[in-house]
Amino acid sequence: MEKEIVTLKEKLNVVGKPKRRVDAKEKVIGKALYVDDLRFPGMLYGKVKRSIYPRARIRVIDTSKAKALKGVVAVLTAKDIPGKNMVPIIVEDMPLLAEREVRYIGEALALVAASSKRTAEEALKLIKVDYEPLTPVTSPIDALKNTSPKIYGENNIVISYKLRKGDVESGFREADVIIEREYRTGYQEHVYLEPQGIIAVPGPNGSMVIYGSLQCPHYVQKAVSYVTGIGMNKVRVVQVETGGGFGGKEDVPSWVAGYTAVLAYRTNKPVKLIYDREEDILSTSKRHPAIIKYRTGAKKTGELTAVEVKYILDAGAYATLSIPVLWRGTVHAVGPYKCPNIKVDSLAVATNKVPCGAFRGFGTPQVIFAHESQMDLLAEEIGMDPIDLRLKNALEEGDQTATGQVLRESVGLKETIRRAAELSNWHRKRREYSLLKGVKRRGIGISTVFYGVSLGAAGKHLDKAASLVHVFPDGSVVVFQSLTEIGQGQRTVIAQIASESLGVKFEDVYVQQADTSIVPDSGPTVASRGTLMPGMAVIDACKRIKKRLAAVAAEMLNTTPENLVFENGEVYNVYKPGKGMLFKEVVKEAYNRRVNLGAEGWFEAPFTSFNPETGQGEPYFVYSYATHIAEVEVDVETGKVDVLKVTAVHDSGKIINPATASGQVEGGILQGLGYALMEELQEKDGYILNPNLTDYLIPTSMDAPEIEVSFVEARYSKGPFGAKGIGEPSIMPTAAAILNAVSHAIGVRVFSLPATPEKIYWTIKGSGRYT
Amino acid sequence: MYINRVNTKILPVEFKYFAPKTVSEAASILNRYGEEVRILAGGTDLLVKVKQRLIEPKYILNVKGIEELRFIEDRSGEIGVGAATKLSELVGSEIIKEKLPVLHEAAEAVGSVQIRNMGTIGGNLCNASPASDLAPPLLVLNTSVKAYSSSGERVIPLEKFFLGPGETVLKPDELLVEIKIPCPPEGTGMSFLKVARTSMDLAKANVAVAIKLDGNTVKLCRIAMGSVAPTPIRLFQTEKILLGSEFTDGKIERAVQTASEEIKPITDIRSTAEYRREVSKVLVRRALKKAYERVKEGEING
Ligand SMILES: Cc1cc2nc3c(=O)[nH]c(=O)nc-3n(C[C@H](O)[C@H](O)[C@H](O)COP(=O)(O)OP(=O)(O)OC[C@H]3O[C@@H](n4cnc5c(N)ncnc54)[C@H](O)[C@@H]3O)c2cc1C
Fold first, then answer.
1. How far is B131 from chain A (nearest CA, A)?
2. Is the CB of residue B133 below 6 angstroms from any atom belonging to ligand 1?
3. pLDDT bucket at B13, cuts 50 / 70 / 90
4. Of B1, B8, B195, which is closest to A117 when you measure between CB atoms?
5. How far away, in angstroms, is B116 Cα from ligand 1 center?
6. Contact yes or no for A678 and B198 at CB 8 A
7. Residue A582 belongs to some domain of the structure
8. Which residue, among A259, A265, A212, has the nearest Cα to A237 in the 3D structure?
9. Are strands A509-511 and A477-481 parallel, antiparallel or unpaired?
10. Distance from CA of B65 to the nearest CA of A (A)
């Protein structure tokens, strides 16, 4: 009997099932409302006047003609900002509107509100800005030279980190082989389907409501309060359906909302501000371009003895999120490998270009490209199979990471490598493809990664989450939480967690969109924390409610609360299955007895630490792991690459919803494929040359390879039902795996991303291998 | 809060819109408004430009509702195609597949299903993009096009049709009504190839070839390329190398070399001139070989 109870309790009815997305139908039939679908009485249209120079002094901004245009209600510059002219991100260095100097093309100078979008656009043309152009600094290498103009602090360095472990010099002395190379990666644009958009609505008593397409409602609340001077208690941010974020709606909506709120404040009218695609590409954050110098030492037998990395990010004109992006990149610079001697130095350098920020992977895809290329070069050098080399060095339970953290649980890394090798037929294909001759060559390549889930030590003060759960007299449940649905399936997963925790039917749970006036600050929707953090907070609230209901149900069923099972909308005595009651009968009785069926839940992230001098500590409380194996075909006469298949094996702990998790992985792979081969934002002297989707290309469904996804579920004891995170690991290994496959196919290596056909063509040509 | 039903994004300009049902109605609208009208077929080129405000038309004339502009006709020896025929209709047409397989291949290489369901053959030619995928095959097929205006009709050889990027010989009051494609002589082998950045992109370079042999002697040779000059072009110098001589690897290599000298590629956002020149060689070589194989297959099957 004892045993049976255990299995009964562990049986999951909703979690682990491929439940249909709660928002699927409305989105598919076009009923879901995005910010541009909303309208308010008397609403005005906002527009932003932007700098056309990468660096210039502003002499005068003449708004008189624009103000005189019929239909224009307000034209505002920095001096009209009611609160602080500052966007609060991590450090305060970025004004909402440039006042004396512009530092990148696209930087905001003035705002217009008018009765129509067209009038607002006309008004922009009438604003005359008198600039005194200054010499811009557009490459991080130039910015680091002594002779460079100082555009940020004393030395143009926004932030730097170091990580020290063991003694790299002796590590390199012990090495039988040393591989030293330099890698470069380019920008990547998010290309979320829906551009940035906000509506600000002034309300009674000096309050303001913000509706927007965003990832981090609490950030926006703070920013709006800053720039308008309205207390945070009177700023309410309501998230509406959001057409994708990928990190691009982490910090940027803070200033989009800042512009809109200032216009709404000054006009006392609702104002809508929606970016065009070109405006969005020119003026919003992107993945940082990077330069990575990498030196790896190893024994003939494959064990790493030393790793030395210099990692430089091109931050753009302001710090924004470069600080945590670089930190994450630094912590992950060595990859998921054991190595006793490590030295990492990293820098984010200011340039007169659009500030780079958060993008899925957050500073890791760049270093992964480097460390995974290094692993393959090493494997080649010592004549070892790339899989064997990785298995030899891969982290497992009890091992120490680069920061000296001992991994105590939930390390599925080796299993992801082994399974990916097996599912992809690695050994056979590696052999067969090596023998191919002719114009079309095939290759197979691997990349393996780890990813610290949630904000880690650098963001620990933000790393908590709240929830609010109400059970109504009809037995239905509403869940409020404050992380956002941005297309990843977050609301569905939260509904599954609530439904499983309370033992109610999935269909009876409704998860509300985030609203800052309802749920306490739960931090941002970033860092693959959207399941783990709010999931735990929801479980906490459900537990409280269930305890109260159990007291009632135990009396009704003549038993003790410990014997009760809540499952699928029913409550029964575990010893008398089939003789229970409906959940809603218990709820009804609880209401009769005036039991409180609403509860708040709370979860604080487990312990993390980081020593800024040595980089040692426990930067993250748990890690996800992933291995991708890519197969490609390369036309050696044109350099064109077709990605044939990607096999993706992920350890993200318990998978709450295999359908949405697979969706994340598939999307990540496609985005990673674009990063690897196609997406090239062309920039010259601070000007972006292709700010549109005609010239900046992303993969379409026709470029999608066959994708096989598999999950290793190494459960995490402090995650909801054992879950960790998957949003970012899904893109992280892809580009490196594809590049390793390309190099296997053509026998030479490309050291920069994206590896466009032309780059591959000239690499092949330059190698003299095929004549 | 209300649901917004106002279009705030797609087209930032205001214009007057005509949707005539006949060619003669269309012609009289064109006659009346001349340069201020823009003809809209599928809109897959035009609307992109309007959205980017590269053009701000005062009047838009939609020709998609003109039934007489949508046909594919087999007229023994010539295939006639209405200018407003959709690319997906070309792809689906048995006549085209059988008689002009190279046009079928090229139409299938345009954009995506969505683009082919909207885009038309007339729009593809009148847009006069150097990168048009239909122009090279139509050029090697010796196509001519028929223009119509209130003052009459004229037939223009496609070779003379393009003037430069976005420019054709059509006058502001003229409407393209028909594409007249002579069926190639029995035994002609043809091919079309394209290199692009992604599956849905315009060509970095494309090529079409038609050859016919007598024994192994080249009796007919036409080669056309796109994206390597201001307009789609025939490679007459290259054709001359092959015409009348034996079809050998040596000759192919000379033709490939000549082609790379005959084209005038530029560097733009999509590609560099150097790469275009290199890849053009590969395309010409492959297209010649593929056309040759098809000649041979035809000999076996026929
Ligand atoms: C995402 C995307 C991918 C694409 N990929 C390709 C590709 O791979 N290959 C390719 O070749 N093209 C491609 N295109 C371009 C375009 O789709 C094709 O050129 C298409 O055939 C244009 O036809 P349309 O009917 O849409 O032209 P429209 O946009 O309607 O018209 C194009 C031009 O022709 C004029 N015009 C149209 N019909 C007539 C007429 N009967 N008489 C006189 N003038 C006329 C219009 O005024 C306009 O100037 C792509 C476009 C997009 C948006």
1. 13
2. yes
3. confident
4. B8
5. 10
6. yes
7. yes
8. A212
9. parallel
10. 27
* Interface contact B299, partner A, CB < 8 A: no
Q: Could you give the dihedral angle defined by the CA atoms of residues B256, B261, B263 and B268, in that order, rounded to the nearest 10 degrees?
A: 110
Q: Which residue has its alpha carbon closest to ligand 1 atom 41?
A: B176
Q: What is the pLDDT of residue A6?
A: 39
CATH class, domain B69-182, is alpha beta
Residue A735 belongs to what domain range?
416-453+621-771
**Domain boundaries for CATH 3.30.390.50 within chain B:** 189-301
User: CB within 8 A of B292, min separation 6: which ones?
Assistant: B189, B211, B213, B247
B9 has pLDDT over 70: no
Q: Which CATH architecture has domain B189-301?
A: 2-Layer Sandwich (3.30)
pLDDT at B197: 84
pLDDT band with cut points at 50, 70 and 90 for residue B185: very high
Return the CATH number at A496: 3.30.365.10
Q: Which of A26, A276, A513, A758 should be substituted to probe chain B, the one whose Cβ sees the most B Cβ atoms within 10 Å?
A: A758
Enumerate the CATH 3.30.465.10 domain ranges in chain B, comma separated.
69-182
The CATH number of the structural domain formed by B16-62 is 3.30.43.10
pLDDT along chain A (771 residues), means of 10: 43 96 95 95 98 98 98 98 96 97 98 95 97 98 97 98 98 98 98 98 97 98 98 98 98 98 98 96 98 98 98 98 98 98 98 98 98 98 98 98 98 98 98 96 98 96 97 98 97 98 98 97 97 98 98 97 96 94 98 98 97 97 98 97 98 98 98 97 94 93 96 97 98 98 97 97 87 52
Interchain CB distance below 8 Å, B272 and A694: no
The rounded distance, in Å, linking the Cα atoms of A490 and A525 is 10
Number of domains in chain A: 3
CB-CB under 8 Å, B201 with A758: no
Indicate the pTM of the whole model. Answer: 0.96
Contact B8 A640 (CB under 8 A): no
Predicted ipTM?
A: 0.93
A421 CA to centre of own chain:
27
The tally of CA atoms less than 13 A away on the side-chain side of residue A350 is: 24
- Cα A674 to averaged position of ligand 1 atoms, centre (Å): 26
Determine the pLDDT at residue B6. Answer: 60
Residue B80 has pLDDT above 50, yes or no: yes
Alpha helix stretches (DSSP H) within A214-350: 217-228, 252-267, 277-283, 322-331
Q: What is the pLDDT of residue B85?
A: 98
In a domain, A349, yes or no: no
Tally the residues of chain B. Answer: 302
Q: Which candidate in B14, B15, B112, B197 is best for mutational testing of the A interface (most A CBs within 10 A)?
A: B197
Q: Is A721 helix (H, G, I), strand (E, B) or coil?
A: helix
Q: Does B76 touch chain A (CB under 8 A)?
A: no
Domain ends where: A226, A248, A283?
Answer: A283
pLDDT score for A771: 52
How far does the centroid of ligand 1 lie from the alpha carbon of residue B87, in Å?
10
Q: Are A9 and A48 members of one domain?
A: no
What is the location of CATH 3.30.43.10 in chain B? Answer: 16-62
Q: Do the Cβ atoms of A695 and B112 come within 8 Å? A: no
Distances (CA, A) of A581 to A180, A575, A578: 68, 14, 9
Strands B37-40 and B59-62: parallel
Task: Determine contact, residues B69/B60, Cβ cutoff 8 Å.
Answer: no
Q: Is the shortest distance between the CB of B40 and ligand 1 below 6 Å?
A: yes
To the nearest whole Å, the CA of A33 is away from the closest chain B CA by 8
Strands (DSSP E) found in B20-136: 37-40, 59-62, 72-74, 78-82
Residues A755, A679 share a domain: yes
d(CA A168, CA A149): 34
Nearest CA in chain B to A699: B198
* Partner-chain contact A40 B279, CB within 8 Å: no
